[in-house]
């Protein structure tokens, strides 16, 4: 297994977040609003749906694909929707993704039974 650098992970996350924010704005007409606005959570919802679906069905997101990353189980099999949903929900909380083990698996990966590898 190839350990993936933090820079590649952040780059992929940035691309996925921008795509989700633009998708949310295009579909709902909402934009990032000031503090306290309910519209501020629309991009997060779009991010959750997009990343969960793409990770669960394809094992990669658009950002991860661009950076040559893949999400899989430790045995190399596909993630599936339940694991993808757990992983993405914890990723949306941010903190679990920041706490990593020596092999660069965040708490969200440990809880979902997944890992990020390069291809």
Radius of gyration: 14 Å
What is the strand content?
5-15%
Q: Percent helix among the residues?
A: 55-70%
Oligomer: single chain
Topology as a string of helices (H) and strands (E) = HHHEHHHE
Distance between the termini: 10 Å
Count of discrete alpha- or pi-helical segments spanning 4 or more residues = 6
Structural class: mainly alpha
Give me the side-by-side strand order of the main sheet.
1-2
Number of DSSP strands?
A: 2
Number of structural domains: 1
Largest sheet: 2 strands, antiparallel
Average predicted confidence as pLDDT: 88
**Which stretches are poorly predicted, pLDDT < 50 over at least 5 residues?**
none
Which geometry do the CA atoms define? globular
Explain this structure.
- By secondary structure, this protein is mainly alpha-helical.
- It has one domain.
- The chain is built from six helices and two strands.
- Strands 1-2 form a two-stranded antiparallel sheet.
- The termini are close together.
Task: Summarize the SSE layout with pairings.
Layout: H1 6-28, H2 42-58, H3 62-66, E1 69-72, H4 81-92, H5 95-98, H6 107-112, E2 115-118
Antiparallel strand pairs: 1-2
Short description:
With about 120 residues, this protein is mainly alpha-helical. The protein contains 6 helices and 2 strands.
Overview features:
two-stranded antiparallel sheet; 119 residues; globular; 56% helix; single chain
């Amino acid at each position: 297994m190839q350990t993936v650098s933090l820079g590649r992970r952040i780059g992929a996350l940035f691309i996925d977040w921008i795509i989700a924010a633009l998708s949310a704005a295009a579909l709902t007409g909402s934009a990032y609003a000031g503090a306290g606005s309910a519209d501020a959570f629309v991009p997060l919802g779009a991010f959750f749906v997009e990343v969960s679906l793409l990770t669960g069905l394809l094992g990669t997101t658009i950002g991860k694909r661009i950076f040559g990353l893949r999400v899989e189980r430790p045995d190399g099999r596909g993630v599936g929707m339940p694991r993808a949903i757990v992983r993405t929900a914890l990723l949306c909380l941010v903190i679990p993704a920041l706490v990593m083990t020596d092999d660069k698996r965040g708490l969200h990966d440990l809880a979902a039974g997944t890992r990020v590898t390069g291809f």
